[in-house]
Amino acid sequence: MGKLTAKEIERIKAPGKYDDGDGLRLVVRPSGAKSWVLRYQLHGKRREMGLGSLNDVGLKKARAEAGVQRKLVLQGKDPVNERRRIQQEQKSVAQNMKAQKATFSDAADFYIQSHREGWKSAKHAQQWENTLKQYAHSVIGDKAPCEITTDHVLKILKPIWLEKPETASRVRNRMELVLDAAKARGLRVGENPARWRGHLDKLLPKRSKVRKVKHHSALPWAELPTFIQEVSRREGLAFRAMELTILTATRTSEALGAAWDEINFNTKTWTIPGERMKAGKAHRVPLAPPVVVLLESLPRIDDNPHLFPGRSKGRPLSNMAMLMALRRMQRDDLTIHGFRSSFRDWAGEATPHPRDVCEQALAHSLGDSVEAAYRRGDLFEKRKLLMADWATYASSALADTNFQ
Description:
Elements: H1 6-11, E1 16-21, E2 24-28, E3 34-42, E4 45-53, H2 59-74, H3 79-101, H4 104-115, H5 122-140, H6 150-161, H7 165-184, H8 207-210, H9 224-233, H10 237-248, H11 252-256, E5 263-264, E6 269-272, E7 283-286, H12 289-297, H13 321-328, H14 338-350, H15 355-361, H16 369-374, H17 380-394, H18 396-403
Antiparallel strand pairs: 1-2, 2-3, 3-4, 5-6, 6-7
Helix pairs in contact: 4-5, 4-7, 5-6, 5-7, 6-7, 10-12, 10-13, 15-17
């Protein structure tokens, strides 16, 4: 028979511990909150177990629950551990139900939405959606992440692994990332069936063995002055954009996205913000005299901040503009990105400029993480000399023409 009564419990106001008997006690906090605690001893150790708030568990229910827990103690079981085990089982059941309802398509959508803000452009997110929809969803789109096996992954990859190795590699990597994220969310357990190292590399040939890496078609550096001369004769913003891209050794997106507020004519510097750089870090480009002349010749449009405005209001030329310009020159054998290789070959073969300066001019990462940690500058003054030499060389045919 317990010591406490419902009326006594209701009258208790003072903070303290009030025993009901057989280890059950009512605890009153300084705040006035009242809760039940069961004290017991197991294997020579004293323990306490909360049975809930008085608002949720009345006296009668507290005594009944205490009786259940005492039976566990008599069986040599720890009530606290048993409660944790039951809670974990209930959580596992809930996760299993959730995992069975979610599909790979759902997991892919979740991953894309979660990472969209961290990607550089909407185009990247669209590429993710398109590749998974085209190659993966027909096989595993409706399957739960916990159901996807290596056989499913191979069924997706084998038809394109030899014919489209680069695309297949992207699809595999994206499936791996989606399934890793699904595992982190409790939607699957075990090894990732799309993992390459130590798994698929034992089942599929390396991409490098399937097809040699195709480099961007580059113009031999010895032919560059004549090529620049031809470009300079052409009318149109696409050709001016091509000149700037070549003379500054920048990437297509960096040149086409250039805005007037990035150009400082006083210091002859073009500062490309980090969000437009491949490495995510701001990059200063020294502007050689021929580049400054080129920039000063460009028209400005009041409602468009870009050096090379496109047809849409406030937008730059499209990424295809310079490629189409090459086609008009009947130079389908070249790519715009390839001119960066032309610059690097010239710098390495025809000049004494140090390797680090040349790589920094291309905004490439230098050395390992230790070297990068000690290198705090961007070699700007040395790059200024390098880019002046490059612009002078690239424009040499123009100088000869003007002289004649």
